[in-house]
What does this fold into?
Amino acid sequence: MAVGILGTKLGMTQIFDSESGIAIPVTVVQVGPCIITQVKTKETDGYNSIQVGYRETKEKALNKPQLGHLKKSGAAPLRHLKEYRLDDPNQYQLGDAIKADLFNVGDFVDVAGTTIGRGFAGYQKRHNFKRGQMAHGSKNHRLPGSTGAGTTPGRVYPGKRMAGRYGGTQVTIRKLTVVKVDAEQNVILIKGAVPGKPGTLLDITPAKKVGN
It folds into this structure.
């Protein structure tokens, strides 16, 4: 596996390709700097990985074990911690920072985040079902219709697509293209849309190869 970076979605805009003149929709993401707070090896923990922290916060927002863990690496109080497994963790040191220059223009990345929560939604909005006829004689405009399977088994099968909570789930969008990298401001532009609304925490990692 490869090392990724945590970031915050700032919003969407568009940029113009000077060669083709095409407008490219992009998502602006504020990434890092992510501080390495722990290095794990097979000898000490049974596997190889590094742990990174993101977004400084107040000390009172963390408990004493969390503060003590972060002080070992000399890091400030950090709200989010994420672990990345890799083959050789010895190339990283405690306190090092991972920044936007981790990626280059043209790289493919996987972006994971929490989608916008839409609360309790009906079956049409949640599952894109069709509605009934809108004529005056119709008794089914937005009703879900029959949900059971008859007298036998006399119950609704689990997983039946019905009304329920919609959104607010962890989603990964794969193989998005990095359009621009601003190493000074730690900002990257990613082609297309990513999960969540502005302010959502994102986990950006190099795209996995086909078959992995």
